[in-house]
Design goal:
mainly alpha, Serine Threonine Protein Phosphatase 5, Tetratricopeptide repeat, 71% helix
Length: 85
């Protein structure tokens, strides 16, 4: 199964397929990035960030750089208007 085929799967199925794909292709940064995106969609923030970091360690020019920056921006968001003492 290719990454294009896996990306068409529903989120939970894609994560399972990506686990198998990564076991066979451990140095493919796009697979880690895609799995990170799917983990993020499932609400597994730590797993997503770990996948982004792994993709970046394999390829510093990976699109995971932008995904990690977006994740950090979301996690760093603070709205003082929502603070209720």
């Amino acid at each position: 199964m290719t990454l294009e085929n896996i990306s068409a799967l529903p989120t939970a199925e894609a994560v399972e397929a990506l686990d198998l794909y990564i076991a066979a292709h451990p140095n493919e940064d796009d697979a880690y990035t895609l799995r990170g995106l799917r983990h993020w969609a499932l609400g597994h923030r730590a797993k997503a960030i770990n996948d982004y970091l792994k993709a970046i360690s394999i390829n510093p020019q990976s699109r995971a750089v932008q995904a990690l920056a977006n994740a950090n921006a979301i996690l760093d968001f603070y709205n003082k208007d929502l603070y209720n003492p």
